[in-house]
Amino acid sequence: MKVAVVILNWNGKELLEQFLPSVINFSKGEATIYVADNASTDNSVAFVKEKFPEVTIIQNSSNGGYAKGYNDALKNLSEDIFVLLNSDVEVTQNWLSPIISEFKKDTNLVAAQPKILDFKNKEFFEYAGAAGGFIDKLGYPYCRGRIFDTLEKDKGQYNDIINIFWATGACLLIKKEAFWNANGLDEDFFTHQEEIDLCWRLQSNGGSIKYFGSSRVYHVGGATLNKANSKKTFYNFRNTLLMLLKNVKGYKVWFLLFKRLVLDGIAGIQFLLQGKPKHTLAIIQAHFSFYGLIPIFLKKRKDFSSSVKYYNIKSIVWAYYIRKKRIFKELN
Predict the structure, then answer these.
(1) Do β-strands 89-91 and 208-219 pair in parallel, antiparallel, or remain unpaired?
(2) pLDDT digits (tens, 9 = 90+) for 238-265
(3) Cα–Cα distances in Å, from 106 out to 76, 102, 109, 165, 189?
(4) Average per-residue pLDDT for the chain
(5) Is the Cα dihedral 207, 213, 216, 219 positive or negative?
(6) Which domains does the chain have, with CATH numbers?
(7) Distance between CA atoms of 169 and 158, rounded to whole angstroms?
(8) pLDDT at position 221, please?
(9) What are the pLDDT digits (tens) for 67-83?
(10) CB count, 10 Å around CB of 212?
(11) How far from each other are the two terminal CA atoms of the chain, in whole angstroms?
């Protein structure tokens, strides 16, 4: 199997300077490395050409966000496996080998992720992906090793291989054929949770997604859009609603959306009480943006809604905040 490691870049010279060397050093002989540039205005492309001539540049014509950026970058690649890798990820020795070996053995495997640890605190899991992703009935994402803001220390408790519902976009390995059969990433998401939407469709098409604890990478997280940025709040709240509308089959989706809208309102009030009015405004803007996109997503719903069971727990909010279940093993 031929492998393409594709790093999406937008004005990220400092990140490339810091993290690209580990990708080159630990991917030799296993993958071709690409930097897909989303119309950067800094000198990051010139920097890569000068310092890392072994890396191939893919020049996108605009900054279309994560989804369009990767769709544009991947359309002309011939490799069998795509690795969508954030520019703020440090990889380690043999990070690719165990996963690629499993792709060769398991023909049903279409996507995967390694163990994601925190670059700034390497003994702990990192927020975006941790040890594999899941969502509850209302679409709230959570991970083994991370539920809301509770991050577990890595003690080897997730050094396994398991089936998961979603693999993180910070380091997503996916078969080329499966990626395009699922119509790639949904560009209406722009950024955030588009990988969950994609993984939903991959499973609707009959594929499986796995986490590999034997492969390890370190992710900075929030290097391009941190948690304090109200834009992240906007995309997270809006895109969850879009994902549910698009993928949940049957009339029950409308009850789920109503419940989410109520909970989003409570979240908005909490942000106000915390002195974060920009985040409250972001939730309001997310809802209006969602309403404007409903006609478009109703059309998508006809093609993509499925009966795949997407949740193992009805409410992670209830489990975490009311029942005080703060780590993954307590949920069951």
Answers:
(1) antiparallel
(2) 999 999 999 999 999 999 999 999 999 9
(3) 26, 6, 6, 17, 30
(4) 96
(5) positive
(6) 3-219 (3.90.550.10), 230-305 (no CATH)
(7) 19
(8) 85
(9) 999 999 999 999 999 99
(10) 23
(11) 38
Query: If pLDDT is split at 50, 70 and 90, which confidence band does 226 have?
Result: low
Cα–Cα distance measured from residue 111 to residue 98, given in angstroms and rounded to the nearest whole number: 13
pLDDT at 295 over 80: yes
Band the pLDDT of 227: cuts 50, 70, 90: low
Q: Are 38 and 63 in contact (CB under 8 A)?
A: yes
Write the CA distances from 141 to 38, 117, 241, 246, integer angstroms. Answer: 27, 18, 12, 16
Task: Please tell me the distance from the alpha carbon of residue 110 to that of residue 108, in angstroms, as a whole number.
Answer: 6
């999406």: which residue's tokens?
A: 8
Residues whose CB is less than 8 angstroms from the CB of residue 288 and which lie 6 or more positions away in sequence, other chains included: none
Non-local (6+) Cβ contacts of 101 within 8 A are none
Q: Which two tokens stand for residue 143?
A: 């991970």
